[in-house]
Design a protein that fits this description.
about 280 residues, mainly alpha, 3 domains, about 40% helix, elongated, transferase, GTP-binding
Length: about 280
Amino acid sequence: MIAVDPSSPYTGGAVLGDRIRMASNVGDMDVFFRSMSARGTLGGLSTATADAVKALDAFGKDRIIVETVGAGQNEVDIVRTADTVVVLVQPGSGDDVQMLKAGILEIGDLFVVNKADMEGASRTVADLEEMLHMERDPTAKLNTGSFEKPDHPDQEEIDANGSAPTEDDDEHWEPMVLETVAKSGEGVEELIETLDEHSAWMDETGRREAKAKQRYAAEIRQLLRADAADLIDDELDRCGGVEAMAERVLDRETDPYTVADEVLGPIEDCVRQQRE
């Protein structure tokens, strides 16, 4: 279990309180729990989360669960790290459900309404199911105010589930909404079964391998950007530092675009020489 906690924008520290809430697993040698701070990283994960997942996988862990810092519009890095993404929602979170429309709705493989014994749980489930239906049903998104209607399947072609037919239904996973009560364990068994079903679907359709390839490609890009940023920082220091350059811009001696060209010029020359 890897739990990522938000960090203070001022001190960079984090409470790491998840391990306290998971005190029931203390002494269980089959469970490894690791908390880490996001350290100001956007995307909902720490920069070390992906490496921690790979390390635990190498250790032979059967299941690796990653908890993100939250469900914001930009906190979607988990989709590039995990094979299955579960979005956890609590009853009465009307604003949170509205927020799901902005970004999180598209990445969830499964939506779980926890504390389903509380008032408002049924409404939250209904709201989620309605939004998922709108994602599946092209006719639900028609802009009736436009002069031209976009192409969409005829009503007769919409299947019983309210979604348009695809070339191969087995190739498409339909996100679903489940209800759980963590304290009593109600619904947890169904949740585990659904997670196993999604895992099997990933293997049968080849999605797991395809997702792993995308994950490695994203990691390569991230590492290249980080190394390139270090090279640029070194070149900035050689040129007198960014503060000195900002002072020149402030004095109208130059402009930011020219400064950027001056810093990147030697690096670009080295790259060209290597290519030749």
